[in-house]
């Protein structure tokens, strides 16, 4: 990350942290218990910078809106006791949730009804002990009703209470358990792992969007190989990434090694790395559409599958063909994927990077003509225009054409020859 962006990100984080502190203080001054809750407490205790802050409180949603005012609050999650409090532009917004107990999860995601309660009962309805912690930022004190601090210290992801019950409430928790364990390099508690394995086949009730979001976070994290192996061991890989689960053991191991060698990959790059090198479009796009990734992710994944072979054979490929790949948006990802396929790097990618290090006018000069030039020169517009422009570009990259006039003369000569042959 560039220094300016890093500073901006740091400033934004400090602004949100300060706003989260103000929210707690304001609620406290109004006579309500209020604490930081969940992931921000976990991350802080792990020495990580929280991505955002959540506040839990004894105030009801109506009381939260009364404290902060209607214009500064949004009641989007009020039915579940959650009010969004709007902060200064640089701080963003904070979700303030009333302490609650949940009853029934008939849709496997959200509680059928909630009852407002106290902090201890609120902690017990959360998913994992490491996410069930509260922190009083004014008194600098952790409130732990579920053994979360002990599990953080031991490096364990453990469901709160009955692991089967926690998963029955929301099947996505199976993937969240894997993500937390893999990204923090933790272990799954035996009872939690066993419950995940018992319910793995039920992950299909979760929407593709939610499954895709969890997989994207795992595959773009540095511990992605561990996540994939954990998904396989817990029988979650087949129902979520069947393309990877169906591979023979040697190919699966090869995919895992490639995934591990990638540094900070984009999602399309990670997805392409999951698939055997013999895979071509539209397999990547099909995978992306199934998991509701973006159309751009689908196009980029398919592009990598189709064009990495050109990089792998770079020195034997005609320069115009290779040049088009190197000049494309996904070229750097293609080079990284080909490098990651081999432990010692690739001479083919070295060759490509040497070409790309030349002055841009040498390896990627502006095209000599465009469609407008052809029309102005008297050529009739039509479906052949693209092919003509491609031929001129090939001749230019091969060094046989070096000016607009030369390009147009080439086309007229080509037309005359074709006419005489007819």
UniProtKB/TrEMBL annotation:
Q: Which residues form the CCA-adding enzyme C-terminal domain?
A: 287-408
Keyword Signal attributed: no
Q: Please list the coiled coil stretches.
A: none
List the EC numbers from the record.
Answer: 2.7.7.19
Superkingdom: Bacteria
Q: Which UniProt keywords apply?
A: Magnesium, Metal-binding, Nucleotide-binding, Nucleotidyltransferase, RNA-binding, Transferase, tRNA processing
Q: Name one GO biological process term.
A: tRNA processing
**Keyword Transmembrane on entry:** no
UniProt domain tRNA nucleotidyltransferase/poly(A) polymerase RNA and SrmB- binding: residue ranges: 186-245
Spell out the Gene3D superfamilies in the cross-references. Answer: Beta Polymerase, domain 2, cca-adding enzyme, domain 2
**One MF term in the entry's GO annotations:** tRNA binding
Start and end residues of each Poly A polymerase head domain: 37-158
Cofactor(s) for this protein? Mg(2+)
Q: Which SUPFAM superfamilies match?
A: Nucleotidyltransferase (SSF81301), Poly A polymerase C-terminal region-like (SSF81891)
Q: Which Pfam families does the record cross-reference, listed alphabetically?
A: PolyA_pol (PF01743), PolyA_pol_RNAbd (PF12627), tRNA_NucTran2_2 (PF13735)
Give the record's family classification.
Belongs to the tRNA nucleotidyltransferase/poly(A) polymerase family.
Q: What is this protein called?
A: tRNA nucleotidyltransferase/poly(A) polymerase
Species of origin: Posidoniimonas polymericola
